[in-house]
Design brief:
It is a single chain. With 300 residues, the chain is α/β, with parallel strands linked by helices. 41% of the residues lie in helices and 16% in strands. It is built from eleven helices and eleven strands. The protein has helices at residues 14-23, 56-63, 79-96, 117-131, 154-160, 178-190, 209-220, 231-243, 253-266, 277-283, 290-295; strands at 3-7, 27-32, 48-50, 68-72, 100-104, 136-141, 143-144, 162-165, 175-176, 196-201, 225-228. Helix 1 packs across helix 6 (178-190) and helix 3 (79-96) packs parallel to helix 4.
């Protein structure tokens, strides 16, 4: 296993994956829709190849000569389009003779449909990978620590001492950092005994919002309190930041996130909290604590 095609390479989840692949002596190639997409990233010299998720011939050509595929995918709020992506990737991987697929779902995925298009589309992609005949591992992260450094969370932490998030006050979350997700993916890729596996991963602690705020207070050096936002309010704020309007459009990323968190908050037991030890032992990864991750961030 040497040559690895990476889908989603220029994005936040792809950059640490490229770093982790290179650190293990592997040779990643970025599958991109836009030529030169890697130029402004930490890996400007990464080889690129054209790869269109909606064009099976493009994907087959991109996969030719590669040993494996490691990927995360954009959320698709049209379920049939998500299913099409899954079928295209599966067909291309099989045709190109890939030896393994590792898919980072980027979110919790239940073992049943939830009538949430973005979530259920993930299940369709997983099903297509399973049916492809290509050995695979699906890595299912809970919630990314790195979300907290994005424009919808960081400014309020830095400027107002408020960690505002659409989690109920009692919702426990096993926050995981992107570097750890990348480490899990690479270990899964190289683990020869894993050929049809689905592994949920998270950080070493399941924290409620107030506990996150306590750790942010230490990392920032000033008091931070947790503000539990309704998912709809959070979506409206995100929409306003990006589009200038609080009107949340149906089937938008903001609408999708609100639906995810509304469902999380309504469950009697948190679906995004787990015991990190089994996956950590299996894949030889030491999960990063929230406090250690927060201490490494720039809160100035």
């Amino acid at each position: 296993m040497k040559k690895v095609l990476v889908l989603g390479a220029p994005a936040d989840q792809g950059i640490p994956l490229l770093t982790a692949l290179k650190a293990r002596g592997l040779e990643p190639t970025a599958g991109v829709r836009r030529p030169g997409a890697m130029a402004a990233t930490m890996h400007p010299d990464a080889p690129e190849v054209a790869a269109d998720l909606y064009d099976v011939e493009s994907l087959t050509a991109a996969f030719e000569g590669q040993d494996a595929l490691a990927m995360h995918l954009p959320f698709e709020f049209d379920r049939e389009r998500a299913a099409t992506i899954g079928r295209n990737i599966a067909a291309a991987a099989s045709a190109a003779g890939l030896r393994k697929i590792v898919f980072n779902t980027s979110c919790f995925v239940a073992d049943r449909d939830l009538d949430l298009s973005a979530h259920d589309g993930r299940r369709d992609i997983e099903r297509a990978i399973h049916d492809s005949g290509v050995p695979y591992v699906i890595i299912e992260p809970m919630v990314f620590m790195d979300n907290i450094t994005r424009i919808w969370s960081r400014p309020a932490i830095v400027n107002s001492g408020v960690f505002a998030y659409p989690a109920a006050e009692t919702l426990k979350i096993s926050w995981v950092c992107l570097e750890d997700v990348a480490a899990y993916m690479v270990s899964a890729l190289l683990h020869e005994d894993l050929i049809a596996d689905r592994i949920a991963v998270g950080g070493p602690e399941a924290l409620v919002g107030a506990e996150v705020a306590e750790r942010l207070s230490v990392a920032t050096g000033k008091p931070v309190r947790f503000q539990s936002l309704s998912p709809d309010e959070f979506a409206a704020r995100m929409s306003e930041l990006v589009t200038g309007s609080r009107d949340v459009q149906p089937a938008s990323i903001y609408d999708g996130m609100a639906k995810f968190y509304r469902w999380y908050n309504d469950q009697p037991v948190s679906p995004v909290a787990l015991d990190a030890v089994p996956a950590a032992r299996l894949l030889g990864v030491t999960p990063t604590s929230f406090a250690d991750w927060a201490a490494r961030q720039d809160w100035s």
